[in-house]
# Entry
Amino acid sequence: MHKVALNFEDGVTRFIQTLPGESVADAAYRSGLNIPMDCRDGACGTCKCHCESGEYAMDGYIDDALSDHEAEQRYVLTCCMVPESDCVVTVPASSEVCVRSQQADVHGELTEINRLSQSTLSFTVAGDQVRALHFLPGQYVNVQVPGTDQTRAYSFSSMVREQDESVSFLIRVVPGGLMSGFMAEQAKVGDRLTLRGPFGSFYLRDIKRPVLMLAGGTGLAPFLAMLDKIRACGSEHPVHLIYGVTHDFDLVELEKLEAFAAEIDNFSFSACVASPESDWPRKGYVTDHIEPSHLNAGEVDIYLCGPPPMVEAVNGFIEAKGIQPVSFHYEKFAASH
# Structure
């Protein structure tokens, strides 16, 4: 048996005791704490934390959940981490978020399906139960594919709209994709959808300094929810979003971003397209458009959501610049079939 100190980002520390062979995540859950997670088997990366001290064993996870570089830096997946001594683990979430609660199914009605481009669509779910979804801007839910027992994870692209008790999502159209195929070919207004969550430690914290947001593809979704929240609450500090896609047709929701820029003091954004055949004026990857002022000599909070290669590229860019941001929150995803 080993003692593990869980240091949460709000300064709270909780101590748990692990049984022989027990993972940190399971021991925490047994102690009434719920480290943000989804899969429990080393596939999603949601429960990623940092081990500050102590020895541990960890195997059975996939590279998309935790890269070799991250493992070398003692980042851990708590669902796979089995302590071999007393340990200190930093959890990238507040203690309040990690108080154990029972996730319940929420049922809603599909009220909108919009084909935004050949690669992306959005959908909206509304209903009395949707109002009970107490999520933080940036978190996600698992949406059950109608007619199956399969679910797909999607970040909220809006906060709950009080006028119709609805929330929205962005979804990439994947050839042969179970959910995207349903949405593109079968779904109709009035269909019932089941959501479970919320999940994830990728969410907007209190804005205490400049913020840099980096979005790749449909990784734009959580930032739309964050900007929804910022529009309601305001920000005294600069917030800049760089939105990168592969092809011109992947650029979506630009009108929403323009509206946010007009309505939110201190918010600005730019969009870039990686394809050399692009007609978009700003080309390249998001790292090509990060300026020194955006990094503010490290006095910055960085939020990043995109596919694994983008996350690794941004990590490498920041390390090469010798910048240590005050905080760096990221979520990487792969398109689901």
Observations:
- The helical segments are 24-30, 68-72, 178-185, 221-233, 254-263, 292-295, 308-321.
